[in-house]
Hints:
Layout: H1 2-11, H2 14-25, H3 27-42, H4 49-74, H5 82-98, E1 101-103, E2 108-110, H6 114-137, H7 143-161, H8 183-186, E3 188-189, E4 192-193, H9 194-212, H10 214-224, H11 226-231, H12 236-262, H13 273-283, H14 295-314, H15 319-353
Antiparallel strand pairs: 1-2, 3-4
Helix pairs in contact: 1-15, 2-15, 3-14, 4-9, 4-10, 4-12, 4-13, 4-14, 5-6, 5-7, 5-12, 6-7, 6-12, 9-10, 10-12, 13-14, 13-15
Amino acid sequence: MMEIVKGKVARLTGGNVNTLMLLLKARTFIALIVLIAVFSFLAPNFLAVQSLMLIAKHVALYAILGIGMTFVVVSGGIDLSVGSIVGLTGMIAGGLIYEGLVLESFGVIVYFSVPMVMLITLIAGTLMGAVNGLLVTKFNVAPFIATLGVLYVARGFAMLHSDGKTYPNLVGKPELGNTGFPLLGAGSFLGIPYSILIMIIIGAVAVYVFKKTPLGWHIFAVGGNERAAELSGVRVKRTKMIVYMVSGFCAAMVGLIVSSQLVASHPATGETWELNAIAAAVLGGTSLAGGRGTIGGTILGAFVIGVLSDGMVMMGVSEFWQMVIKGLVIVLAVIVDQFQGKLQHKLTLESRSK
């Protein structure tokens, strides 16, 4: 496949390369427009206000996960555990609201306010990310293997948390002071759902970190050339720890939002969502080789995944075929990304030779 790509790049010259490069850079936006046009034609209710609002809420979840994944992938890693962390943190939040924290040694049950439940859940997700970071940095486990292991561990703990059962009706009780949890998933500000506002806030912070802080520069440096970054004074291990913790935090936020929207927590929540996160990042231009990616691109990629997923559901496409199509989208996105990299390299060489 790479030899074919190299051959095609070699045959392109001058204006053809520049034109193709522009099209490749705009590929995510073009794909989004095409998908909207196709589903608008094939699914009559696709452009209904209610449908668009539902798609936007799903996009927010994929985007938040994708932003965390972008931090990891740009640094040269991968995080396969985010879907399981979504399920585990959702169960943690649901358990704290539904049955409280049981302290058997003292014979008491402690119930927390919703803000405290959210804080505990976010800390738990961040700590799960820290476990990934420790496995990668301290024990030198390959990111793929480390996060795959944590995927199973987190999913197992999610099942053990309630013996595989769902925590239903998470509305809380006034006398326990833990009401208001459904507001996170159903509430809005100025007509904008809280989940979308959270996506915007996290996205804005991530853009600032990438473009305006030393941490952002260090993440790109580590992903571009880890050895060179270390020799230039970048604390590589600390940087890797941070990106996995960011990914865990984002997954925990999604776990909270989903449980709030459903007013219930199920241990299987988030299964295969790591695919959506990776797809959103890759479609948005993040290189799986590390060192390249943008938050804006990832959010746009999340829109593509959201529109694709919901559009297929509206058309009645089998869930199994949806998984197949998403997998093919990821593979195609990687191939196109490699092709773009070759073109970029060609343009760089031509500019240096002039």
